[in-house]
Amino acid sequence: MLALYLRSALARLRFGKQIAAINIIGLTLGFTCFVIGYVVSEYLRSADQHMANIDRIYVVQQRNVWPGEDTAKAFSPSASRRLADYIRADVPEIAAVARLKSELVRVSVGDHSFPFPVRFADSDLLRIFDFPSVAGNAPAAGDASAALDEPRGAVITVDMAEGMFGTRDAVGKTFTMTRQQRTVDVVVRGVVAQSGKVSTVGFPSPRSNILAGMDVLDALSEGERRDDWYGDFSTPTYALLPADGSLSAAEFERRLQRLGDRVVPQRGETAGFRVRHVSDYYDDQMNAVLGQLGFAPGLRVTLLLFLPALAILAMACFNYVNLAVAIAATRAKEVGMNKVLGASTRQVVERHMLEAGVAVVIGLALGFALAASFVTAVNRLLALTIPFFELVGPAFWLTSAALALGTTALAGAYPAFVMSRFRPLDTLRAGSKSAGSGTLRGIFIGIQFTVASVMLTAVFVMYAQNGAMRREAAWLPADPLVQLDNNLLETPGVDSELLTAELLASPAIKGVTGMPDGVWTAAMTDDAYSRSELDGEVPVALRTRAISYDFFTTIGVQLSAGRSFTRGLDRPRDRGADRDTPQTGRRGLVADRDALRLLGWQNPSDAIGAAIYRRTASEEGPAAASVVEYEIIGVVDRPPLQALSTGAPSVYELDPHNSRLIVRLAADDVAGGLAHIDSTWKRLVPDSPLRAVRFVDESLHEAMQTMNWLATGLLSVVTLGFLVAVAGIFGMALFVASRRRHEIGIRKSLGAAARDILRQLLVEFGKPVLVGNVAAWPVAYVLAQIYGGLFLERAPATPWPYVGSLVLTLGIAWLGVGGQALRAARLQPARVLRCE
Length: 836
What we know:
With 836 residues, the protein is α+β, with helices and mostly antiparallel strands. It contains 26 helices and 21 strands.
């Protein structure tokens, strides 16, 4: 019987090629998105699964909650750099604990020097993670676990060894690292094989080929501000639980919290800790980002990769239901004959469910092939190593089978039920029968276009918001601004004041200032500020941004009150000592309006000359915690040269040494200004080549690239959704036009013009599309508000994205059905009525 049903299902596909193709195309697109989402999700979840200790590797996470903040705030997937030392002392059962940090440093080998992202780690990292050793300081062949035990050591990959020294036998060879004018000699202690497997450590990989000891970073950072308990936690901390099971993850977490309660200084925040298995690292990392942007944390974020697939599959199911129910009317006689010959209701349902299952299986097979081709192309294009066929194991096929069964049930159950309800006597007498409700078909089409319209409106809003941020460059001065890529603090032998003076000596240069980060990026570190130095006052979280002299005047921003930093009057940050040590006298600070409102000033002028205090922690414990006093000297309306909202207002301190210079060029001599920058740099800083000079307005476009990619990715999903929706409405138009030939012939014989018939059909198909758009607008508006909230400069709210979505969806829908509607409207009444 099954073989008979299968042959019947295949015959039905051949008989109705157009309708079958429409259904299978929609299912194929949905399954393609599903397979890609599954592979990418599993690729991220497979991080470190090849490690021998995978069952015992955990990540320590930290979360600081301010008074009044949501206690469900996301944990940071990393922790304070100081936590690892306390864990070693207070939890001796831990087999190993190691910190990891990534920094851009200058690597030099002989006369060759280049900037490179280096991973720095405690020596225990190589006991937690096993990297296959090619050569090195190891207790056994193939074991790199002891390679970082000796000071000033590093492990490099085979590719890096051959690139730096011309041989893989690089153990014992020396190179130097330079950061912020400090240089350290580093000895290669081990060479490991290149790996294409994904790891949360990020080493070894094509983008990170050097792993150095944490003591090297400490030497490069000597005298700088130390990580306290309340910084931005950029130090992932890994822990290896004991092999004998004497310490569980839950018990380790409880002891961590007790440890934090004892050693973390109290300054208004509550510090919390938890441990998570390393397989959750990327989910937690994305959760932390979403939490900062205001989205609800706690999700398994990689599951979001399946949402486009589920949306498109649902639309494909609606297509199938609509077309199958409509076509059921033409199969009434066939069903009636089957029942007369003894077919039961259950057998009718089984037969038509199998037809749906065949279409689903074909769609799944085609989707799998398309996904495999797509991932292979992406691997080649982006030099990735996503092992597609390794990731689609038994779990994938079980999930796919469950999804296929669910899709079959969703797509085939209602049409099969409708046909099973046909009564033989009625169907054989009439030859056909009304199947399903036209209203229900309209609802299904409306739902499809509701989903498509939500996504399309979101795309329009995203592009409008991104365009508004690109127009943010319009407030920049007419004279072009450029930023030098070299940070003066990391450039040996440079005198910032002399360099500034020499640059200003040319008439082609109108101003020089600087900031440590690239323009349009946002500082992500919170500091605690208050109007009183007393511990009883709850501080507010503000973002401290370092700038140089003449910052606001150079970039063309007017202060709303007070003044900017002045040479000889304002004291810059002392680079010879920790900036958090107690200081005598006040240091100046410029604040934005929102920062002053948080501190209690509604009128900016009232804050000028007032003192505020930044509270800091100390390595010696709470008793040694210090307070830095500042005087508010100026107020700016909004943070300049910043694209995204950081969630906290900004204050600005003077630090001309930690600076990437921003130079204002004369508009009438841009080429001369650029040439003067290049020649002055070569003359004053001959040992450090100028890496790049970037125009500030072009840097904005680069800063918006991620958002543009997000919009483009959503547009791709929208395009797939529209293909499915339009295919469905086209199939429905194909069917309706053929089924209503008799009605149209009668209407035309009674005097209806072709344009009247065409207008009627277009209105009928346009109604569910219109209703779907109107239903989509509230959801699209909420999404637009969420996305706009990520930016400092929000695009004005206009109806055009919603109107544009309506016009485009109606246009696409009418384009899809227009040909069939026009063909139906041009029917010759005499020929139709004679044949029917």
